[in-house]
Amino acid sequence: MTKKHKIIFQYLFMFLFLSILTSSNSQELKSITYHGEDFFILEGTKIPDSLKENKYDRLPLSYKEIVRKPVWELSKASAGMSIRFLSNSTSISVKWTVLNNNKMNHMAETGVKGVDLYFNKMGHWQYLNTARPSAIENEYMLIKNMSDEMREYKMYLPLYDGVKSIEIGIDSNSVIERPLKKNHRPIIFYGTSITQGGCASRPGMAHTNIISRKLNIDCINFGFSGNGKMEQPINDLISEFNPLFYVIECLPNMTAEQVTNSTIPLVKTIQEKRPNTPIIFVENFLYESLALDKKEEALINEKNTALKTEYMKMVKGGVKNIFYINSENATGDDHEGTVDGVHFTDLGFIRYADFLIDKFVQFGLISK
Questions:
Q1: pTM recorded for the entire structure
Q2: CB–CB of 115/155 below 8 Å?
Q3: Which of 8, 34, 50, 95 is the most exposed place for a label (fewest CB within 10 A)?
C-alpha cells in the first residue's frame, strides 16, 4: 500500500468511526423526553421572572434604560445561575439555546456557553460532565447507564452568553421533580470580568459557583466584564436584596479617581437600607506583569491605596460592618493561576474561592 493510499484509508476510517459515534448518540437522544422550567428551580438570582425580559437575565427589564448599554448587554449572560432538579432517570441530557453564540480567544467555549452537571453526593456537589456547545441550539447527553434511583442534580448555566431556553432530558419512563427552594440568605458579588467567570473552562468553576457549592449558600453574580465600576444603578439594585453580606471586587475596571469618588457612595446606598449587612471590599488583583511592568504596578498600587484610604475614612468615621481584603497571594504564590496574567484559570478560581472563604471565616461572617 502506498503512502497516499494509507492516508486515504486513515481518513476513511476516522470518518466511519465518527459517523458511528454520531449515529449512536442520535439514537440515544431520540429516546429522551425533555422537560422545561416547570420541572426545575432557578438559583443564583433573586429577581422575579415577571420583572425580567428573559428568565435567565441578571437585571430587571426596568434597568434597560437606566444602566449603560454595555452593562445591560452583559446582564443578559447567565453567569452564576444554575438550575436544580430531582430525577430517577438512568440518563440526563440537556437541550439549550444561547443568545449570541459568543466566542473568546482566551476562554474555552464550554465556559462561555456550555452547561455543567453536578449531583448531590451525601450533601456535597460532585461534578459529572459538561455539555459542549456547538451552535445557537444545542443538545447533549451528559450521563447515562446510571441506576434508576432518585438523585438531586444541579446544572450551571453559561458564563459569557445568555440562555434563551433550557430543557432537561430524561428517560421517557422516568420522573423529574422540582426540589424545595432554599430560604437561606445569599451572598451578593459585584465586580468585573473575573467575577463574571473569565476565564473558567466551564461554568461550575467560576469562584461564585465554587463558593456556593462549598458553603451551600446561593451566590448572586453581578459581574460585568470591563464594566464593574460601583455604579449607582447597580448599587441601588443590590441594596434592595437582603444578603448575608456583599463582596465588592470592582477595582480592575476602575481608575483611582473613580475609586475615590464611588466607594463611600456605594456604602451609603447599601447601608441606608441594609445598615447591618456586612460589605467586603477586595483590592485590585496583583497582575503577573507587575513583576516587571513598573507603570502597571504603579497604577494598581494607586487604586489599592485609594480604596484603603476611603475604607479608613469610613472606619474612622464610625461606619460599621465594612471589611477590607488585601489581595496578595489571592491565587497562590507560584504565579500559575491565570490564563493571560489577569483572568483566572480553574486553578486560579479554586485558589481564589478558598482565599475568600478563609477571609469570610476570619471576619466571623460564616463558619466552616
A1: 0.91
A2: yes
A3: 50
